[in-house]
Amino acid sequence: MNLDRDFTERARRVFRDEDDLLAVILRAHLVLEHCLEIRLRRIFKLPDVLNGRRFGRLGFAQKAAVFVGLTHPSNKCQDLLLGFNKLRNRAAHIEGSDLNQATQKILSTSIVLDPDEDFDPDATVKWAFFMALRELDLADQILEEKHKGVRLR
User: Fold this and answer.
1) % of the chain residues with pLDDT over 90
2) What pLDDT is recorded for position 144?
3) Residue 67 in contact with residue 56, Cβ under 8 Å?
4) Per-residue b/e over 27-57, b at no fewer than 16 CB within 10 Å?
5) CA-based, 20 to 30 A from 35: which of 29, 64, 108, 130?
6) How many CA atoms lie within 13 A of 151 on its CB side?
7) CB of 85 within 8 A of CB of 64?
8) Under a CB-based contact definition with an 8 Å cutoff, are residues 151 and 15 in contact?
9) Do the beta carbons of residue 13 and residue 31 sit within 8 Å?
10) What are phi and psi of 2, to 5 degrees?
11) Is-above-0.85 flag for pTM?
12) 121 and 141 Cβ atoms separated by less than 8 Å
């Protein structure tokens, strides 16, 4: 499957954003939603149903539910998708240290966090995003340029 250049650049920007945790969360969520749509379009016999004209638009949670129902991905993939959706929804209503705490709490259910390490919310979101891309079998295509400009930790 070929991904368009604009999409892969948006995905790579998640790793390059360093200043704004909220921007990283929102961009990662948007890219993952697009990834779900890409995967669903490959499965659906009528992929245009996702355009939203006749049947309405599916949101992230609905796309994730349909994807899980059709493909039965790993529990880790399911946890990451649920975690990113919950984190994005929570991030819309809080900021600052509350956002850092919410990130730690929500993503600790999706990935293993070392309690002895200082928590870095930015790096954790990027790591979870990478793992989600990998679970969706899109990481290699998005990061094919030898991880150019990528800072995971």
Assistant:
1) 31
2) 65
3) no
4) bbbebbbbbbbbbbeeeeeeeeebeeeeeee
5) 108
6) 9
7) yes
8) yes
9) no
10) -95, 130
11) no
12) no
**Cβ contacts of 133 within 8 Å, gap of 6 or more:** 11, 32, 35, 139, 142, 143
- For 123, the token pair is 């790096």
Rounded average pLDDT over 56-67: 94
Percent of the chain with pLDDT strictly greater than 70: 86
Token reading at 59: 């949101």
As a whole number of Å, the CA-based R_g of the chain is 15
Range in 56-60, 100-104, 140-144 with the lowest mean pLDDT: 140-144
Structural tokens at position 83:
């975690």
63 band by pLDDT with thresholds 50, 70 and 90? very high
* Other beta carbons within 10 Å of 6: 8
pLDDT over threshold 60, residue 151: no
pLDDT of residue 120: 84
